[in-house]
Design brief:
transcription cis-regulatory region binding; Sig_transdc_resp-reg_C-effctor; five-stranded parallel β-sheet; alpha/beta; transcription; 8 helices; single chain; globular
Length: 224
């Protein structure tokens, strides 16, 4: 079965290179779009298996497109592409729901491996996940996700909450006082946690962001 990949990129030279590599060398079915206009409708129409999404696009940015996809509960894996080497840009992409982030110039073999990871068979989460309090691990069947203390704190808070938690709520729950307006520590923790989980539960967005309300879990997690 041929796997469809959508490339949303306004740089013709890069788009041509990616199309040639993915379609000719890797045998994917590739279709392209060169701006942010009508991107959401195109994804709904074409239902690609994976999206390569540039950040700097005409009409709508890649961030805006990604937000519209996740708001519409479209969980198609997305790899963001950019020439920007800013850590904040990468953090924003991951917080908004990107599955991966790759900097230009793009190395074909690196891209190939990242695509393979994201389109491998998905894990269907039909049972509760277990949050091991003693070992700071997330457990599911034979999968063990080792968590940093900073990641564990956030997952524990979300597991206990019946409502979405804003970044400010999470900061207060962890530290006991209000965050400074320019504090990005919770965003960094969230992006690290979501990226780590996505490596194990491909295609399953365990932590989602509900606009204007905050972050929440899409699956039940039992603490042990």
């Amino acid at each position: 079965m041929c796997i469809d990949i959508l490339i949303i990129e306004d740089d013709k030279e890069l788009g041509d290179m990616l199309t040639y590599f993915l379609s000719t060398v890797e045998n994917y079915s590739v279709f392209r779009h060169n701006s942010g206009e009508n991107a959401l409708n195109l994804v709904i129409e074409k239902t690609p298996r994976l999206i390569l999404l540039d950040i700097q696009l005409p009409v709508h940015t890649g961030f805006e497109i990604l937000t519209s996809l996740r708001d519409a509960s479209i969980l198609t894996p997305v790899i963001m592409m950019t020439a920007n080497d800013s850590e904040l840009s990468e953090t924003n992409a991951l917080v908004l729901g990107a599955d991966d982030y790759i900097r230009k110039p793009i190395r074909a073999n690196v891209l190939k491996e990242r695509i393979k990871r994201l389109i491998s068979p998905t894990v269907k989460l039909q049972e509760k996940l277990i949050l091991s309090m003693k070992e700071s691990q997330l457990l599911y069947q034979d999968i063990t996700v080792h968590l940093l203390p900073s990641e564990f704190e956030i997952l524990e808070i979300l597991a206990q909450s019946d409502e979405p938690k804003s970044v400010h709520d999470l900061f207060f729950d962890i530290h006991g006082y209000e965050a400074n307006a320019d504090d990005k520590s919770i965003y960094m923790r969230l992006s690290s946690l979501r990226k780590k989980i996505s490596k194990y539960f491909v295609g399953q967005e365990l932590i989602k962001n509900k606009r204007s309300r905050g972050f929440y879990l899409t699956r039940d997690i039992e603490k042990q």
